[in-house]
Amino acid sequence: MSGLLAGKRLLVTGVITDASIAFSVAKLAQENGAQVVLTGYGRLSLVERIAKRLPEPAPVIELDVTDPEHLAGLADKVREHVDGLDGLVHSIGFAPQSCLGGGFLDASWDDVATALHVSTYSYKSLAVAALPLMSPGGSVVGLTFDASQAWPVYDWMGVAKAGLESASRYLALHLGKQGIRSNLVAAGPLRTMAAKSIPGFEQFEDAWAGRAPLGWNLTDQEPAARACLALLSDWFPATTGEIVHVDGGYHAVGA
Ligand SMILES: NC(=O)c1ccc[n+]([C@@H]2O[C@H](COP(=O)([O-])OP(=O)(O)OC[C@H]3O[C@@H](n4cnc5c(N)ncnc54)[C@H](O)[C@@H]3O)[C@@H](O)[C@H]2O)c1
C-alpha cells in the first residue's frame, strides 16, 4: 500500500452528500492508502448511498454525537471493521435557524445549547468515545470557520466555533500525554448542505471573491480535505492545538 496515509485506519464523521467536506476527506484518504469507516447521522440510507460513491465503498455506523448510547457503543461498532484507529475526523456542525442569520440577540438558550452540544462539546465526546481504539501517533482533526472575529450572519455558530477552537487546544493538552494530536482546519466558505442552511451565506462568498489573495473556489472541497490528510499523516508529528487556515489567504490580509 502506498500513499500519504498508507495503512492508516480512519473514522470519518460528517458525510451527508458528496459535497460534504468529509466526503472529500474520505475519498482522498482512500486514494492515499487509508482504510475508512464512516459515521452517519439521521438519514442513514442516504449516507450509505453516498458511501458507495467512494473509491472503496465504506461501512457506515450510525452516530448522533449528542446520544450517549451511540457514543458508548461506538468503539465496539468500529472494531467490527478495523482493529484500531490512527485518525479521527470531526466534520460536524449544526445550529437551529434562530442562531443564524442575524438573530444573535434573540436566540434562546435552548437553541444555543443545541448548537454548542452538536458543534462544540461533540468534539470532545467523539474523541473520548474513540480513545480506546487510538494509540500514540494518533490524530484528531476537526473543521472550523475562523472564529477569531465576529462575522455577519454566523452568530451563535461563530460562538460555537470559538468554543471548538478552544476545545481542540484543551484536547491537545489532555491527550498529549498519550501521544495523540488534535488540530483543526479553518476552511473558507464552501457550498455544502450546512452552508446552505445559513441565511445570508452569499455574503461570505462575495467577501472571499474580493479578498482572498489566492482566489477561492466555493465548490472545491479538496484543498480543505488535503489539509486534513496532512494533519492525519505522520508529517505533522510535533504539531497539536494548531489551526491551519485553508481559505485562499483571506485571514491574513485586510480589506
Ligand atoms: N461549508 C463551509 O463553508 C464550512 C467552512 C468552514 C468549516 N465548515 C465546517 O465543516 C464541517 C462539515 O460541514 P460541511 O460544510 O461539510 O457540511 P455538511 O452539511 O456536508 O456536513 C455537516 C455534517 O454534520 C452532521 N451532523 C449534524 N448534526 C449531527 C449530530 N447530532 N450527530 C452527528 N452528525 C451530525 C450532518 O449529518 C452532516 O453530515 C462543519 O463543522 C462545518 O461547520 C464548513
Model description:
The protein has 255 residues and is α/β, with parallel strands linked by helices. The protein is built from eight helices and seven strands; from the N terminus they run E-H-E-H-E-H-E-H-E-H-E-H-H-H-E. It has a seven-stranded parallel beta sheet, with helices on both faces. Helix 1 packs across helix 8 (222-232) and helix 3 (68-79) packs parallel to helix 4 (109-130). The termini are far apart. The mean pLDDT is 97. Bound molecules: nicotinamide-adenine-dinucleotide.
Write the topology of this structure.
Elements (H helix, E strand, L loop, with lengths): L8 E4 L8 H11 L3 E6 L3 H8 L8 E3 L5 H12 L5 E6 L18 H22 L3 E11 L10 H21 L5 E7 L5 H4 L5 H10 L10 H11 L10 E4 L9
Parallel strand pairs: 1-2, 1-4, 2-3, 4-5, 5-6, 6-7
Helix pairs in contact: 1-8, 3-4, 4-5
The chain binds nicotinamide-adenine-dinucleotide.
Structure in a nutshell:
The protein has eight helices and seven strands, in the order E-H-E-H-E-H-E-H-E-H-E-H-H-H-E. With 255 residues, the chain is α/β, with parallel strands linked by helices.
Widest β-sheet, arrangement of strands? 3-2-1-4-5-6-7
Which molecules are bound besides the chains?
nicotinamide-adenine-dinucleotide
Strands, total number: 7
Largest sheet: 7 strands, parallel
Task: Evaluate the radius of gyration.
Answer: 17 Å
**Mean pLDDT across residues:** 97
Low-confidence stretches: none
Strand content: 15-25%
Helix content: 25-40%
Number of helices: 8
The ordered string of helix (H) and strand (E) elements is EHEHEHEHEHEHHHE
* Class per helix and strand makeup: alpha/beta
Shape: globular
What's the N-to-C terminus distance? 46 Å
